[in-house]
Amino acid sequence: MNLERLPFTVLATLLVAAPLHAQEAEAEGEAEGSASVGYGSAQLESSTAEVSAPRDFGRAGVFAVGVERLFGFAKTSGKVTIDEGTVKTERELENTSFYFLGGNSQSETDSFAGPYVVPRLGLDYFVVDRVSVGAAFTYASDSGKFDETVSGQNNRNQYDVSQTSILIAPRAGYAYMFSESVGIWPRAGVSYVTIKSVQDDGQNKAESSQNMLALGVEALLVVLPVPHAGFTVGPTVDFPLVGSGKEPVVVNGQVQSRDRDTNKFTTLGLQFGALMWF
User: Fold this and answer.
1) Each residue of 35-51: pLDDT tens digit?
2) What is the C-alpha to C-alpha distance for residues 66 and 54, in angstroms, rounded to an integer?
3) Domain 63-277 maps to which CATH number in 3.30.110, 3.30.310, 2.60.40, 2.40.160?
4) Phi and psi at residue 22, to the nearest 5°
5) Given 4, 25, 120, 276, which residue has the most CB atoms within 10 angstroms?
6) Is the pTM of this model over 0.90?
7) CA-based R_g, the chain, Å
8) CA distances (Å), origin 228, targets 63, 132, 171, 274, 278
9) Residues in the chain, pLDDT under 50
């Protein structure tokens, strides 16, 4: 072995190996950098998706069942017009109430609260994320007896009274959840109401009816303190579109029916309800 040439051989080997090692290190660094950038991009995309995606309530496929307008505050105003040609009768009624489990829906008396404060069953389905379609339903039936005796006169009035009301309110809504437990759910639709009342004294039967179509708007706050259950609270407006009806009138001792040309009721409220979703 020629020892004099050994240093030059080692030096040449190092000079050749150094660039190769630098190239390998640079390639590894680029690979690691690409992996880091890819991971960061994936993490950013995941975070963006989490922000833009709806929370559990409001996802496509969610079905919500609610008991609505259980209690709250409502201000109702009504207008009834009866035009008989030579005689025109107009009535304007107002009512302000704090109610629990519904108010008096009879618009025949001065103490009415209107048909829009009666508790209702709500069914809503989210067809896509955040967008719901559904309807609210009400069926109420009341009956009783009236017995009046006038002292000093041989006069006694007795009759049975009954009333049936039905409400159907299709609607659409948009739910936006700020967190897992708090969000908003504005909804809008139309409400159709039909009410029938009967007063029967055994000899004469007096019947009255009402039919109303209204625009309903709700701006609800949704609070879900436990999984799959919670409550709603918010302002509601029921604005009349059309309304008509019939009411009894006594003519020459006989009970007859006359038309209500206008039969409209407006309700502004702050109403509370409960819901479950699946």
Assistant:
1) 444 444 445 444 444 44
2) 20
3) 2.40.160
4) -65, -40
5) 120
6) no
7) 36
8) 10, 17, 22, 11, 7
9) 1-22, 25, 27, 29, 31, 33-42, 44-53, 107-111
Q: What is the three-class DSSP state of 231?
A: strand
Q: Which residues of 66-81 are buried (b: 16+ CB within 10 A; e: fewer)?
A: bbbbbbbebebbbebb
In 45-181 the beta strands, taken as DSSP E runs, fall at 63-83, 88-100, 120-128, 131-150, 155-174, 176-177
* CA–CA separation, 257 and 262 (whole Å): 15
CA–CA distance, 46 with 48 (Å, rounded to integer): 5
**Two tokens at 106?**
């009879």
**What sections of 138-243 are H helices per DSSP?**
none
Q: How far apart are CA 124 and CA 110, in angstroms?
A: 35
**Token output for 145:** 């007896």
The ranges assigned to domains in the chain are 1-52, 63-277
Q: To which H or E segment does residue 31 belong?
A: helix 6-52
Across-strand partners of 255? 250
State the pairing for strand pair 205-226/182-200.
antiparallel
